[in-house]
């Protein structure tokens, strides 16, 4: 699918299957989310530009590669995005973090924004938005709208699962934002849940249901 990268690494697929199982405990789900988020982070940053720096090893001076440009920004769509954030920050500890509070009104399925915080200079940074579920796409669209309003233009969207309806909706508004996901599932149900999915990601990671 154009504009979408499906991360089909065997370890990602294996962990995702265990996360989908209804009998997986909150503790297990959280641990797997942390592990899978590192693997997803590895893939979403695979093509970052490198630049050479002169360093000294204990033996000699050498030219060695480092990631070019300003530090990345991980933008977490609250609350479920924070589950992905933790593992990603372990891999990229110097990343800046933006929090975007958008919840889905369960009746209208429309996003309601209640919080936004981001570094001042997001226009100069690569932003990776994280949210485990790209369902209707409405919250993701709202998050990208907000970041673009603040000048961001280099944005990627990382999730665990995406629904075809959500991808279509998202790409109709933000075709410039590449989507990275571990799976494109079958469809959305009438309540806006991804099928087969894994249930409510926030409830599963925080044990709130
Ligand atoms: N959000 C979730 O947590 N799960 C879904 O299936 C859809 C949206």
TrEMBL record:
One of its GO terms (biological process) is uracil salvage. Pathway: Pyrimidine metabolism; UMP biosynthesis via salvage pathway; UMP from uracil: step 1/1. Its EC number is 2.4.2.9. Residues 6-208 form the Phosphoribosyltransferase domain. Binds 1 Mg(2+) ion per subunit. The magnesium is bound as Mg-PRPP. 5-phospho-alpha-D-ribose 1-diphosphate binds at residues 79, 104, 131-139, 200. Allosterically activated by GTP. Keywords: Allosteric enzyme, Glycosyltransferase, GTP-binding, Magnesium, Nucleotide-binding, Transferase. InterPro entries: PRTase-like, PRTase_dom, Upp_B, UPRT, UPRTase/APRTase. Uracil binds at residues 194, 199-201. This is Uracil phosphoribosyltransferase.
């Amino acid at each position: 699918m154009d504009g979408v990268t499906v991360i089909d690494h065997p370890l990602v697929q294996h962990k995702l299957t265990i996360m989908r199982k209804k009998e997986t405990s909150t503790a297990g789900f959280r641990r797997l989310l942390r592990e899978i988020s590192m693997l997803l982070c590895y893939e979403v940053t695979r093509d970052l530009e490198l630049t050479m720096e002169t360093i000294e090893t204990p033996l000699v001076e050498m030219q060695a590669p480092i990631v070019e440009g300003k530090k990345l920004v991980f933008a977490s769509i609250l609350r479920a995005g924070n589950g992905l954030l933790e593992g990603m920050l372990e891999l990229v500890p110097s990343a800046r973090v933006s929090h975007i509070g958008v919840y889905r009104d369960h009746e209208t399925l429309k996003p309601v924004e209640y919080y936004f915080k981001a570094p001042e200079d997001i226009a100069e940074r690569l932003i990776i938005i994280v949210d485990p579920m790209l369902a209707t796409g409405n919250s993701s669209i709202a998050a990208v709208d907000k970041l673009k309003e603040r000048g961001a233009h280099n944005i990627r969207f990382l999730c665990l699962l995406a629904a075809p309806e959500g991808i279509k909706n998202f790409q109709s508004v933000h075709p410039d934002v590449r989507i990275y996901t571990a799976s494109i599932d079958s469809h959305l149900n009438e309540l806006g849940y991804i099928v087969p999915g894994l249930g409510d990601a926030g409830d599963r990671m925080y044990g709130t249901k």
